[in-house]
Amino acid sequence: MRFAYDVKYDQIAGGPKWMASGSYDLRAKAAGPAEGPELRLMLQTLLADRFKLAIHRETKTVQGYALVAARSGLKIKQVDGAGPPSMKSYRGVIAAKATPLARLARNLTITLRTPVVDATGVPGAFDFKLEWTPGVISSEEPVSAEIGPSLFTAMQDQLGLKLEARKAPLETIVVDRAEKLVVD
Amino acid sequence: MMMRALMAHGALLSVAFEAASIKPAASPNSGGTNANITPGSLTLENYTL
After folding, report:
1. B2 touching A, CB under 8 A?
2. What are phi and psi of B28, to 5 degrees?
3. Per-residue pLDDT for A116 more than 70?
4. If you average pLDDT over residues A20-32, what whole number do you get?
5. What is the ipTM of this complex?
6. Is the pLDDT confidence value at A176 over 70?
7. Which residues of chain A lie closer than 8 angstroms to B37, CB-CB?
8. B22·A26 Cβ contact <8 A
9. Shortest Cα distance, chain B CAs vs residue A31, angstroms
10. DSSP result, chain A
11. Are A24 and B47 in contact (CB < 8 Å)?
């Protein structure tokens, strides 16, 4: 369901208890070279067929963050026609090429496990590399020069961006019905 | 966007895989999941619904 509806685990609610325990192997082939959005729609159809899955969507308001420009102004430069966007993230690093800030917000949503919305109002694409001390998120946590910057500090110092606590909308997939898979 | 527009006009009545199989995981206790997504194919191993 996470892939089919492009959501994280905590954005799925409801459904029978067995949904959290049984695990499955799935192999599927499309008639043509379908990309992500089409594959998601096909998977939704498949889950509705095999598991009799029925859902509805709800949007709730949760505590999150808004990505905004710091008072110092942006420290990253816009790039034009620099090729397709790419973003790599691993422990304590987010490196991006030709990437809009909305995508950084989505990546931070995963990193922080909290909704982050792009409120910079800045269009276009950027090259940047953000490096912080893995596991050190807030600027309020004690940080020494030996440990290195927190994520919040690194964002301001390296990118000229900051995260402001803000209520944010979170779409949730609510399972109305699901039946155990009948194996042939 | 185009697909949504087509669906909204009823031009695309169903979006389905050409072939698909779902089975109980072969290694349910391995503790890990594996996903392989390429244009036109999708493989997910050891995933819960």
Report:
1. no
2. -65, -20
3. yes
4. 92
5. 0.75
6. yes
7. 3, 36, 39
8. yes
9. 5
10. -HHHHT--GGGEEES-GGGGT-EEEEEEE-SS---HHHHHHHHHHHHHHHS--EEEEEEEEEEEEEEEE-TT---S-EESS--S-EEEEETTEEEEEEE-HHHHHHHHHHHHTS-EEE-----SEEEEEEE--TT---TTS---TTT---HHHHIIIIISEEEEEEEEEEEEEEEEE-------
11. yes
Contacts of B23 in chain A (CB under 8 A): 24-25, 183
CB within 8 Å: A29 and B45: no
Domain extents in chain B: 19-49
> What mean pLDDT comes out for the span A69-93?
86
Q: Which residues pair with A63 in a beta bridge?
A: A167
Q: Which residues of A touch B (CB under 8 A)?
A: 1, 3, 15, 19-39, 41-47, 50-51, 53, 178, 181, 183
**In the numeric block, which tokens belong to residue A29?**
């082939």
Mean pLDDT of A103-132: 90
Measure the CA–CA gap between A124 and B22, rounded to whole angstroms: 41
The series of mean pLDDT values per 10 residues for chain B, 49 residues long, is: 46 74 87 84 92
Interface A-B, measured as beta-carbon pairs within 8 A, has a size of 109
**Stated pTM of the model:** 0.61
B36 contacts chain A (CB < 8 A): no
User: Is the pLDDT score of A54 beyond 70?
Assistant: yes
